Amino acid sequence: MMTEQRQQAQEATLDFPLEGVRVLDLSRVFAGPLCGQVLADYGAEVVKVEHPQRGDDTRDWGIRIGKTETTYYNSMNRNKRSITLDLQTPEGIRIVHELVPQFDVVIHNFKHGGAEKLGLGYDVLKAIKPDLIYCVIAGYGSDGPEAKRPGYDLVVQGESGLMAINGEAHSPPLKFGVAVVDMMTGMGAAQAVLAALYGRSRNGRGRLIELALYDSGISLTGYYGLDALQLGHDPERYGNAHPSIVPYGMYEASDGPLIVAVGNNAQFERFCRQVIEQPHIVEDPRFATNVQRARNRLELVPLVREAIGALPRELLLQRMTEAGIPCGRVAGLHEALTCERSRRSRLVQDMPHPVVGSTPVFAPAVRLDGERLPIRRAPPTLGEGTRELLQQLLAMSDAELLALQQAGVLTLPDGPPEA
Hints:
The protein is of the alpha/beta class.
């Protein structure tokens, strides 16, 4: 675990690429908040606007942490500040309008037409700040007949064909373990915002960015999607195996599962001779090349499975490592998060929490100049920055904040300001 002093020293020396960029995050749930989190990781000041009472929907999803956070919320909201505003009130919208000139990016995932109805549409905010980068995340394309349909990861996994390519051949379609469509969309949104910021630095222009979950789901089908177009029908499903490379997948050793990833003919020869000690397999002309191995997988896979099943996992891993064959143990999730490899990489760090003392938070996966990007802020409690940020950015007085709290426009969870 990184000490507070070490973290402060790292932050003092690290040149954050987005330092000075401000992002107003009006989004909720997964894709939009992930976009904001990525930008925050690179140093942007991301201010998350939440409903005064309930906050982001995900504050009620997953395992409860403290009074207003959950595991789900914490996974998408590190390095941000939180302010509360009721955007169904004229005062809440007025405050957003007053904030916009001081921000470079706005992110939202309102239903189609919802931002315009509130007075937060692109044309309105662009008139306030002409070089604004405005990022919209929706379920479906804004120019199609389904524009008003709400977007949900699971629905799009089904509609885009992703569930049809996941799972074993004779099992029903299966969703991915995490919300991969939301994740793809959020990462794509962050990339688009970064590109727009770079473009604006050269030409001074703002941008309207739009992403649809459905489009991201189709993109995620990758080579499976192109296979389907070439075949004219759905490709076969192979579960933990690879559709084009054999042997490549999960196998059961005599004492547990492992991953075998034989990527070329030289590796296959070493695998047969040095690892499973079955030279007759590599000498069989049916298995001479990967194309032939894939074509004859029904004959090859049982032979490999039997040979692997007769040997202990650690011996197989040792032999494959010595032979230069990619391999690994199949770990449980808790095991993976707490193993020495993850601890050494500081991928999970304990951050201070005002109620429970500390809570684990994922660190960014990126390293810059040899250092992992730090967690500058733990995921915020609901509205923790309302008073400080509105006073700093809009010079609001304590009396104004108190009046807005009494009117239900915002909440000040650290207590009402003194009159």
